[in-house]
Amino acid sequence: MTLNYSAKxxxxxxxxxxxxxxxxxxxxxxxxxxxxxxxMTLDKEIEILIDTQEIAHLRxxxxxxLRLIQTSNDAIESVKI
Length: 81
Fold this sequence. Notes:
Elements: E1 5-11, H1 17-29, E2 37-42, E3 46-52, H2 55-78
Antiparallel strand pairs: 1-3, 2-3
Helix pairs in contact: 1-2
């Protein structure tokens, strides 16, 4: 299978890195029919690599992933005291 489109997202959210990563990882783990190959790693930053044959699938995955990153960050911020 030849993959034609790819994207790399790098996120550095400081102390929130692990919580955001876990949220993304859980979402990706339970999406068996995902038409993209999505790999995520966590070190000093979150790195997400997306590969697919269809540009529409890449766009959809990017939109979803970026929205989930923002939502996870906002949720963490909302419970700060």
